Structure formats: C-alpha cells, structure tokens
Amino acid sequence: MKIIRAKDYQDLSRKAGQIIASLVTLKPDCVLGLATGSTPIGTYKYLIEQYNNGDLDFSQVSSVNLDEYKGLPRTHDQSYYYFMHENLFDKVNIDLANTNLPDGMEPDSDKACADYDAVIESMGGVDLQLLGLGHNGHIGFNEPSDQFKKGTHCVTLSQRTIEANTRFFASEADVPRQAYTMGIGNIMNAKKVLLVVSGADKAEAVKNCFFGPITPQWQASILQLHKDVVIVADEAALSLV
Ligand code: GLP
Q: Which residue among 126, 150, 171, 186 is least enclosed by CB atoms within 10 Å?
C-alpha cells in the first residue's frame, strides 16, 4: 500500500488526477472504475482541464461506476448517473455507450445486481478503481458488517451514511434508504486501486482502515491485502497517523 501525502484538497485532486491521466495516456482503451461523493470532484475537474488542454483523449475509455441509489431515477440530481454526467461524462469525449452504472430503477434487486456483475465481467477487468472513503470506512456502499460481500448487492444504508448524505437532499427523509453497490470482491479484482480521502473528519476512518486490523467493521481495511493500492490523502486526513 502506498500513501501519498498531499498538502490540501487541491493538491490531492491534482495528484490523483495525474495518476488517472497517466493511465489514460499509457492505455487509451483502459477500463476506469469510477466513484461519486464530494471527494473525487476535484480529481474529475483536473481530468476535464487536461482534456480541454488537448492533453487527454477519453474516446476509447470505458467506465464502470461503483454504485447507485435504489429508486432514484437518472434524472434526479442526486442520482449517481446524474452526478457522473455533471462532473465528468458530459465534459470530456468519453463515448456514453461505454459508461456503466447499476440500474437504480430496477426494482428486482437480484436482477439489478446480477446484470451489473455481468456488465463488469464483460469488460474484462478494471484497470484502475477510484474510491472515496465513508466516515465509517465504507467503500462504494459496502457498509460496516460482519462480512465482506463478493459481488454487486443491494445494501440498506447505515444511519451514519444517511446523515452524511442528507446535505445533498432537501431533508433526511428524502435520502434513499437502499443502494446497489459493487461488492468488495469486485473492487479487489481491479488491477489498481486509487483511494482519495480528504479532511479531518475522515482521519479516524483512515487510521482504522489502513493502520489497524483487517475487519469488515471497517470495510476499506481489506485494501491492505490488495497488491497495488495508492491512497492519496491530504494532511488533515492523515492527522491521526
Ligand atoms: C458516498 C459514496 C461513496 C463515497 C462516500 C464518501 O456514500 N457511496 O462512494 O466514497 O460516500 O463521500 P464523500 O467523498 O462525499 O465524503
């Protein structure tokens, strides 16, 4: 596990963006595993800047996102589909036919999850999986639990995650209670993992996930077993280690 210390959020975003940009340059038809949440927004901004400068070409890139709320239509401004279009897809030349998210409007969870695992499988492996980190150590929406889940599954969000995500909705009651998420097995299958984490409010999660025992109570701790993980963290996020 490699930890890159960034000065602040801007520095973190540039460093993480450079890692993704170098992959896209070296392997123009790479498969990117993408993430939502506020942390990767700066990384996406960096990539958009590089694209606008003529330094990056996404035309052959394909992507697969970690997760999606269950029951939110794509047109809802808090759906992860909407987020990805707003923050990346509509601003670079990625072929939208090659972008993938779980279908949050599929009411049959088993079908939604099996379909998404089939999509991931058909892509022949994720070259780089970008991750944020929840306050409780979740990655994607893999919440603290007594087990690590292998494939895409439907989760009931923890109270802590609902509270953290309330800031994006009109009220707590509007936050969806369930989501479809890639499993830990899907994430661990990526050739490279890039986790971005920022802010003092994530310091406890960083300490428990990367400097403590591997436990499903801190789901990201499993990344200690991945052979190619880069964590780009700012000083505030590293303040307890
Ligand atoms: C959300 C997402 C995660 C994200 C996390 C942290 O619930 N499902 O993929 O990493 O929360 O988000 P943020 O970066 O906004 O703190």
A: 171
The pLDDT tens digits of the residues spanning 107-150 come to 999 999 999 999 999 999 999 999 999 999 999 999 999 999 99
Closest listed residue to residue 19, CA positions, set 95, 129, 96: 129
- Domain membership of residue 240 (yes or no) is no
Mutate to test the pocket of ligand 1, among 41, 72, 141, 201 (most ligand atoms within 8 A of CB): 141
Q: Annotate 15-56 with DSSP letters as a single string.
A: HHHHHHHHHHHH-TT-EEEE--SSTTHHHHHHHHHHHHTT--
Q: Catalytic residue at 138? A: yes
Confirm whether 67 is a catalytic residue: yes
CATH code of the domain covering residue 124 = 3.40.50.1360
Has residue 77 been placed in a domain? yes
**DSSP β-bridge partners for residue 139:** 142
pLDDT number for residue 160: 86
Residue 20 inside a domain? The answer is yes
Among residues 68, 103, 117, 143, the one annotated as catalytic is: 143
Distance 33 CA to ligand 1 centre (A): 14
Do 214 and 204 touch, CB atoms closer than 8 A?
no
User: Domain range holding 113?
Assistant: 2-234
Number of domains the chain contains: 1
| Cβ of 35 below 6 Å from ligand 1 | yes
In a domain, 239, yes or no: no
Q: Any catalytic annotation for residue 136?
A: yes
